[in-house]
Amino acid sequence: MEQVFFTSWASLIRTLIIGVLAYASLIAMLRVSGKRTLSKMNAFDLIVTVALGSTLATVLLSKSVALIDGLLAFGLLIGLQYGITWLSVRSTAVSRLVKAEPTLLVYQGRFLHEVMRAERITEGEILASLRERGIASLTEAAAVVLENDGTLNALQQTSDNANSALRNVPRP
Predict the structure, then answer these.
(1) Is residue 169 part of a domain?
(2) How far is 102 from 1, CA to CA, in rounded Å?
(3) Domain range holding 72?
(4) Mean pLDDT for all residues in the chain
(5) Would the pTM of this model clear 0.85, i.e. be above it?
(6) End of a domain among 97, 117, 146?
(7) Which of 159, 99, 105 is CA-nearest to residue 127?
(8) Is residue 75 packed enough to be buried (19+ CB in 10 Å), middle (13-18) or exposed (0-12)?
(9) Which one of 1, 7, 53, 55 has the lowest number of neighbouring Cβ atoms within 10 Å?
């Protein structure tokens, strides 16, 4: 009969040792790879984070995966993520490939309903974003932008259009 609650002390000790070593190694690799690895996530970052978590779980619980194999997998994932982000800073083509463009949802006090439907954002979510920024009325909003990481940023109307924070956001 299969052991459900307890297999052996050796199994527990292995999980404890591998867990501590794998966790410590992952933290060290993430620290070495820089702040960008742990930044707010876009879709690409989310995939790497999920893959790292899955790898950690596999290393912890699968007796058929040696610690060194898991560490190599951590290094590979972090190295690939570092390489792609390094390239995306230096190449607009790579940047466009891995990062979404910010999307304008409100412009000059008006909802952009077609864009909102395409991005699956409700008026309520936009109004909540305005309230978070202390903007009391839609007409006071220069824009609400859906950022690359999924956050909503609301901007108040200003008279300084030359230095607008919207200069890299496509307009309707």
Answers:
(1) no
(2) 56
(3) 9-97
(4) 85
(5) no
(6) 97
(7) 105
(8) middle
(9) 1
